């Protein structure tokens, strides 16, 4: 299978391809490096495939150059043959960070941390149990790093404040990214979709049960905003019966243990 | 007779991350089949529907600038090719539509300054 990478200019109605490249391996996901200074320098991104990842750069003459990301030794790398990359996210940089770091989530529940400036694998950490089906999504902000599981009703977050109870540590050291206090919030199904605010304090999430939730890590709160049905098959006809308020008194019915038929 | 409310939301295997949140303008957007539902986070939960093309919307994205709302279809079994639709996130007017001449779109990402789109596509039809 051939994957095609294209960078499009879409502003003001344009449909122009800035640059294009084709690679003979399937690409699972991609992510721009949003932490380069200046409007003209937002020209780097990363792609992950099942067992490799690539750093890409758009050159001044609009060519795409890539460099293969460093993989660790066999004992440090993928857990087994079924293990593979699943998602990625840059760590929101702090002015005291020495580099820009990349988190790559794996099907085995591990997360790899790499240093993108020197293309170096730093370490891996197990963040999810095997039953969670792997890492589905990673979000990073100054406040926390959030991990969503593929098969799990809980979203996990690691505080980045530099304090975990009485213990203090440097949050600027990349080896401490998962040392902070862990917290989690749960919803009524697996996380199907999610949307974060800039701080990572709040999430809008859609569960596989069809509910839309508001989650707040500061308030430790989950609020169901809406329950939806999921039409797995087309609705071809409907019927309805009008029940006037005189005919149906829901308070009385509830007292009698009324159940809807 | 008029449509009062959409009560459904696609959440099966053929969609992924099909919800976005515009915090400043206080609305969420989600999809049902090929329709994008813009729902205000007010008490009335007023809805506005956007419909482009015939294929199921796979994913929604809000640009980092919160200026653009993007929807794309993973494959194009009905329209013939997968498509990317870009709307104004404030007025909901369609600003652009890009048809991808590949079998399947794997990923679409706004650049950090919301001025470029990174599109990864492939030649093999995936599972819908």
Describe the structure.
The complex is a heterodimer of chains A (261) and B (128). Chain A has 261 residues and is mainly β. Chain A has a domain at 70-189. Chain A has one helix and 20 strands. Chain A has one helix spanning 250-255, and strands spanning 3-9, 16-23, 29-32, 44-48, 53-58, 64-68, 85-90, 101-106, 110-115, 120-126, 135-140, 144-149, 154-159, 163-164, 167-168, 182-186, 191-196, 202-207, 211-216, 221-227. Chain A has a four-stranded antiparallel β-sheet, with no helix packed on it. The longest helix of chain A has 6 residues, at 250-255. Chain B has 128 residues and is mainly beta. Chain B has one domain (19-122): Neuraminidase, CATH 2.120.10. Chain B is built from no helices and ten strands. Chain B has strands at residues 19-22, 27-32, 35-40, 47-51, 57-62, 68-73, 83-88, 94-99, 104-110, 117-122. In chain B, the strands form three sheets. Chain B has a four-stranded antiparallel β-sheet with strand order 1-2-3-4, with no helix packed on it. Chain B has a four-stranded antiparallel β-sheet with strand order 5-6-7-8, with no helix packed on it. In chain B, strands 9-10 form a two-stranded antiparallel sheet. In chain B, a hairpin with a 6-residue loop joins β9 and β10. Chain B is globular and about 45 Å long.
């Amino acid at each position: 299978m051939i994957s095609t990478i294209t960078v499009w200019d879409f502003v003001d109605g344009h449909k122009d391809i800035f640059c294009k490249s084709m690679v003979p391996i399937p690409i699972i996901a991609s992510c721009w490096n949003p932490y380069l200074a200046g409007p003209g320098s937002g020209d780097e991104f990363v792609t992950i495939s099942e067992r490799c990842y690539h750093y890409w750069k758009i050159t001044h003459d609009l060519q795409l150059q890539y460099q293969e990301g460093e993989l660790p030794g066999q004992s440090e790398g993928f857990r087994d043959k079924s293990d593979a990359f699943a998602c990625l996210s840059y760590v929101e940089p702090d002015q005291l960070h020495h580099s820009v770091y990349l988190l790559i989530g794996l099907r085995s529940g591990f997360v790899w941390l790499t240093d993108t400036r020197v293309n170096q694998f730093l370490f891996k950490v197990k963040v999810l149990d095997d039953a969670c089906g792997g890492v589905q999504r990673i979000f990073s902000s100054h406040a926390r790093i959030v991990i969503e599981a593929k098969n799990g009703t809980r979203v996990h977050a690691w505080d980045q404040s530099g304090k975990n109870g009485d213990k203090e540590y440097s949050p600027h050291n990349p080896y401490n990214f998962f040392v902070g206090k862990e917290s989690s919030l749960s919803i009524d199904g697996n996380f199907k979709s999610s949307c974060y605010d800039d701080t990572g304090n709040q999430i809008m999430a859609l569960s596989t049960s069809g509910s839309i939730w508001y989650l707040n890590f500061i308030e430790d709160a989950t609020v169901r905003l809406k329950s939806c049905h999921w039409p797995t098959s087309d609705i071809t006809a409907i019927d309805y019966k009008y029940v006037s308020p005189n005919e149906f008194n829901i308070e009385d019915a509830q007292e009698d243990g009324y159940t809807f038929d | 007779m008029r449509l009062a409310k959409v009560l459904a939301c696609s959440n099966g295997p053929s969609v992924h991350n099909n919800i976005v949140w515009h915090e400043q303008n206080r609305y969420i957007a989600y999809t049902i089949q090929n329709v994008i539902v813009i729902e205000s986070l007010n008490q009335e939960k007023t809805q506005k529907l956007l419909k482009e093309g015939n294929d199921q919307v796979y994913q929604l994205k809000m640009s980092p600038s919160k200026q653009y709302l993007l929807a794309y279809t993973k494959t194009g079994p009905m329209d013939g090719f997968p498509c990317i639709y870009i709307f104004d996130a404030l007025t909901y007017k369609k600003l652009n539509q890009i048809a991808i001449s590949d079998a399947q779109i794997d990923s679409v990402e706004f650049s950090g300054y919301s001025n470029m789109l990174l599109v990864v596509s492939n030649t093999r039809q995936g599972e819908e």
